[in-house]
Amino acid sequence: MRVAVGADHRGVELKRRILSALATAGHHCTDVGVASQDPADYPDVARQAAEGVAAGAFDRGVLICGSGVGMSIAANKVPGARAALVHTVEGARLCREHNDANILALAGETLAPDDAGPVVAAFLDAPFAGGRHRRRVDKIIAMERQAERREPSSAPTPA
User: Which residues contact 50 (CB under 8 A, 6 or more apart)?
Assistant: First the structure.
């Protein structure tokens, strides 16, 4: 599998471990940054990975920042990216099976390095289940397309 892996300065150590493990498992990884613990802006890394995944250059992406929140928010701004912040193997499996997530966001400062490997493996190994979940993912895609066209929402207005 072709995987983009990126981190900001707060996730660079975990990124190195993940890159090594993925290469050992036979995945084709591209390190999209950063290489040091010098302060870096997570949106730049998230955008590069998310655009690559959305364009089909990568099958999946793994992004790491201190909490994982910033990377997931930034990646989800790219049309075609579906990033999920996950902390457990079960969450990694479900985000793939139910949401067809194509980017995994991890918390570099709170996820134990020994726990990260199984979480990433579950994310990469789990297929999208389709079925009733396809309808829901299609609705997400439709929302994204509507936003790209800047059309007003057809969602009901709260009372």
Answer: 61, 74, 75, 76, 77, 78, 80, 81, 83, 103
